[in-house]
Every structure is written in C-alpha cells, then in structure tokens.
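In the design runs reported in the main text, the only information available to the sequence generator was the tokenized backbone. The following block is the verbatim input for one such run; it is reproduced so that readers can re-run the procedure and compare outputs position by position.
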C-alpha cells in the first residue's frame, strides 16, 4: 500500500494555525467530514475514543491520530503541517507539528495496520520529516510524502 492510495492532494494542509490538541482534532474532524460526507462530531468522537487509549503523538514532532469507523468506506488520509507546534501529549513529551489523520473502515484491520505502518515509516524517518518541515506549500508536502510530483496546470 502506498500513501497516495489514501491521501489526495486536496487533503494536504500547509501552515495550519491551531492553538492546542483539542482544537486540532476538532479541525481535522471538520475537514475530513467535508470530504467524506460524515458528521464532524462522529469523526471527533472516534478520534477522541482512540486518544483515550493513549496519545497518537508518536514522538519527534509527529502525531498519527486515527480511527476505524463504520461509515468510512475506504481509507482516508489528511496531512497537516502546523505553523506552530502544539502539545499533543506525545510519548516523548515534545510538541507536534506534523499530523497525519487516518480514517479507515471499521472491519479493515489488516488494511488499517498497513496504512498506519506506511505513514509511520515515512513520517518517523528523520530525513523525510525534515524535508516535510521544509516544504514551501501543500503541493510540496504531497510530493515529498507520496513521491508523486503534481503538474501545475
């Protein structure tokens, strides 16, 4: 599985201004609900339940909030690079500035693990994370994360 299988160029945000973890999860739930046709509160609830199990802040400034939902029909990703890092209660207690939201169908356990592993491998790589932090715009973020260049038509 490759990241471009569940991340569209339109679902990449560069320079998101957000004050804290709660506001970040709320904004991600809102944005993903617009694309998927879901209720934002349902998405936020699923993300909050997952966060209650333990923070998805995996360290080194990266968070991978994720959830499985009955209403989700195919894997969906949303990448955000924050303008300023926020406290995400990460395992290393460092603030987060790279966030990849992943929503998956409820019954897709192996697909869930493959998608999550794919994103985690990329974002946990120090060189890849540094490149993402240096990206000038959303197009650059998408290209760096997926390895696919977008035409400027």
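Verbatim output:
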């Amino acid at each position: 599985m490759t990241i471009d299988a569940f991340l569209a160029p339109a679902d990449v945000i560069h320079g998101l201004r957000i004050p804290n973890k709660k506001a970040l999860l709320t904004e991600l739930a809102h944005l993903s609900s617009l694309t998927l046709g879901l209720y934002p509160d349902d998405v936020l609830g699923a993300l909050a339940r997952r966060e209650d199990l333990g923070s998805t802040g995996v360290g080194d400034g990266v968070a991978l909030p994720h959830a499985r939902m009955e209403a989700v029909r195919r894997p969906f990703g949303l990448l955000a690079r924050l303008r300023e890092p926020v406290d995400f209660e990460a395992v290393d207690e460092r603030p987060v500035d790279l966030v990849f939201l992943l929503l998956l169908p409820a019954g897709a356990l192996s697909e869930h693990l493959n998608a999550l592993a794919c994103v985690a491998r990329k974002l946990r790589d120090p060189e890849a994370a540094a490149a993402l932090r240096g990206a000038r715009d959303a197009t650059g973020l998408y290209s760096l994360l997926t390895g696919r260049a977008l035409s400027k038509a």
